[in-house]
Amino acid sequence: MATQLNPPASISLGDFGIMESVSKCLTPKLDELRGKKILFSSDDKTLVPAEGWGARPSSYCATTITTFRPIRESTMVAAIDSSSIKLAETEEGALYAIKCGVAMAYGGAALMHFKLGPMLFYLSESTVFDSELDDRLARLVLADSDVARRLVRVRAERAIQHELSSHLRNSIILVDGSLRTSVFEDRNRSMAKIAENCVLHKNLIVGISKNTKLKILERAGAPLAKVPGPAYIEVDVIIKSLVRGSIGSNLMAKLDKSTPVLRVDVVGDRDQALGRLLGNDPVACGYPETLRLAHHISTFTNTEVTCLRSHVLNSYDVTELAADDIRHTLLGSIMV
Fold it and tell me: Any idea where the NurA domain is (predicted)?
């Protein structure tokens, strides 16, 4: 009769010393948590304390607070935003879609808006290696769809920003995000070229970030919470020491009373740029209305995605393959 193998009667996690091993390579230090102000996180949301972290000063930036007012000098404000998605894959590459929004304001009121796209781009070895990307970056674009989406988005946004900077005069070009160079840029439409165009044509360029991964910037901008109106603090020292390729002046600013403090980058005169922005673009909840509108224009809807899929099936003689959800197959659908 075969010997029956029985599992051990009981196994304890303590038998392996796992917790002790983890604690040795990463000390918990939970005792330092006592008495701290705390903000619980959410993976899909950017949260900030409603009343700020407090007035703890930062040694990395100037403590001078500069206030500014709306400048009622009629100026065109043009805001640009975009979004990109991976629509499909082939054995050799992937198909991406980009959608861009441009919104304009003048004299304190919305003027017009445009939707560009959706536009389709197929990235494969032949298309990527024919570009000016170096071989290492080209391989990364082919291997990582998030990097590829970033490439498509950066190039489309830079093309629009470059044309606006070349054709507008005495205007403000408003960008979603920070002003910095990117490895994905086309050399003829780089952020540096766009900034150069703005100087030549007397345009101002302003980049506004809805959130920042640099926690020190939140601390640097904390004193602005007590200022009753629009104001900014310079944070050039922090940005230039931590981030490569930053362009223009770096600020933490709030655009209205009792509104969030945002990172703002400016190429040109800071007070003129922010003052004319407030004087020509309606600001709701501390954020320019043109940027808000450009964001909504550029967001993909489910209907658009469905239409794009139908367009590809009907126009390019492709064969749709049945798909398996690997994650669902491996993990099942147990609801927790």
Answer: 75-300
